[in-house]
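Hi C.,

You asked whether I'd gotten around to modeling the 299-residue construct. I have! Everything is below, sequence then structure, no commentary in between.
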Amino acid sequence: MHKFITILILFLATATTLQSQELNARVTVNSDRIQGTNKNIFTSLERALNQFINGRQWSKAITLSNNERIDCTFSMIVLEQISDNSFKAELFVQSSRPVYNSSYVTTMLNYRDVNFTFEYIENATIEMQENALNSNLEAVIAFYANLIIALDFDSFSPMGGSVFFRQAQNIANMAQSSNWGGWSAFDDNKSRGSMINAYMDESLKGYHELWYTYHRKGLDEMAANPDRARMTILNAIPALKEMRLVRSSEIILQMFADAKLDEIVSIAGKATEDEKKEIYTLLRNVFPSMSTQIEPLKK
């Protein structure tokens, strides 16, 4: 009987731990471009990243059930071996969230990080201490993990992701002080430092409001009242035009377009001819380099 109770307690403790994680990530490491080296290190890296991302509780204040965990992918392509344990890579980070009362899943983040170098020793675990960073690998992955959660939580409640945006900014600040590449907010307007500073910029607070309205009051209402939900989204989009006036908004606008532009075009495609013309003009002005994606609204 005592043995059964002990097993039950261990099971419940394990279940509680599993429910506390926020991310449900699929992690892949592609090393096809690296020749003549020990491939076991990349298998080990993939396993370590999987454990780090999915096994960590990113906030002690929030508990999610398994079906509430955020679906995301971390796809690493190793481009070059710099030294025995040092590598250059690209990292593709994507996340999504389900839309209420439907089978539709909307993209939240779709980003390609091309300025990523890291060190890793085979069979090493990846761990993170509060207010301390051991490596650029740890910093980059933790940064995007927090960004994914921030964007997801921001879509469910006004400024709901604030604590995670702050955690990502803290990581960026620590990484900059370590002089790791890809973080400087001063000489690269597409760096991770520039990205998180833009999200934290008070003059771009309206973007967070747009993000919440778009998802919670727009997409989540599509099943109940598609016409009203569509108008809510189209009426919120003009906020992007105001963002163009803010210098730091460039990277966020690009990230928004990469995640949402095709979806907006699809939604606007069911509007009236006058509404489509209006949204086409607005999107063309905000995203002048993406005319091909916007073109369907002219038909």
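If it helps when you're writing up: The radius of gyration is 21 Å.

Thanks,
B.
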